[in-house]
Amino acid sequence: MTHTVAILTGASRGLGAALAFALAREGTHLVTLARSLHPTLGRHAQAHGCHLEEHTVDLSHPASAQAAAARVFAGMPRNAQRYVLINNAGTLGPVGLAGYQQAEDIAAALNLNVTAAMVFTGHFLKATEGLAANRRILNISSGAGRNPVAGWGVYCSSKAALDMYTRTVKLEQGRHGARIASLAPGVIDTAMQASIRDTDPADFPDISRFTGLHANGQLAEPDAVAARILAYLDRDDFGATEVDDIRHY
Ligand code: NAP
């Protein structure tokens, strides 16, 4: 019997992989989406009695995101007690001061960080509407959506849009609908952080802050952050603060 249906984007590495491993338990039907598969998630899920459904898709292509969402939600079990969507897939996108990014790179980043999250949220809401179940959506945002960072105009704007979208959906859902929150996860030791440290300082004046966080061991481990995020998702008051930060807990 399926207790929980969890849909998670960006599960192939980093924070998403850590979330996927922690979510893969007996009674959970876990659906993951990314361009590549995690090499050992399937074995882990099988060993833990989790029904895993893995989709490879480039979510920066709106048509592919739309088709994947339609496929996932059409095939979703409808007898679960709990439905969870975690929009985690994200990219830093093109880094550089305004005027130094190409239109197609800007669009691809916005498509992944914003459009795909909106598409999956919309499909989730429609597919679970009317079910006698607990329905929760967690958007993985960033402190960069709330405070500007020079060189990250695309990334900061995308996460600010995700925050505002979350606020809007909360308003639409009201007190009895699905619950939703947009959560900054803090700084985590993932490939995204490695790519930040690889940036040209001319494109990203604040690079020393991030090389310093790494050098001083101040980046959190993905597994530890994933455990805190899943505990947050389970809270009775989940969604009460719709734009939130895991570092407050
Ligand atoms: P990451 O290590 O770069 O992993 C990103 C994940 O997104 C991967 O699974 C990747 O899978 C997937 N992804 C990237 N492009 C995709 C595409 N076009 N289509 C489908 N999936 C795609 O990043 P992370 O650090 O774990 O970040 C996870 C989330 O946390 C992001 O939303 C990020 O903005 C946010 N965040 C991270 C930090 C941090 O310090 N790391 C801080 C604040 C917020 P594939 O490459 O296989 O497609």
Structure description:
This protein has 249 residues and is α/β, with parallel strands linked by helices. 42% of the residues lie in helices and 16% in strands. The protein is built from eight helices and seven strands; from the N terminus they run βαβαβαβαβαβαααβ. It has helices at residues 14-23, 41-47, 62-74, 103-128, 153-173, 191-197, 207-215, 222-233; strands at residues 4-9, 28-34, 51-56, 82-87, 134-140, 179-184, 243-245. A seven-stranded parallel β-sheet has the order 3-2-1-4-5-6-7, with helices on both faces. β5, α5 and β6 (179-184) form a beta-alpha-beta unit. α1 (14-23) crosses α8 (222-233), α3 (62-74) packs parallel to α4 and α4 (103-128) packs parallel to α5 (153-173). The chain is globular and about 55 Å long. It starts with a strand and ends with a strand. The relative contact order is 0.14. Bound molecules: NADP nicotinamide-adenine-dinucleotide phosphate.
Distinctive features:
249 residues; alpha/beta; seven-stranded parallel beta sheet; 8 helices; binds NADP nicotinamide-adenine-dinucleotide phosphate
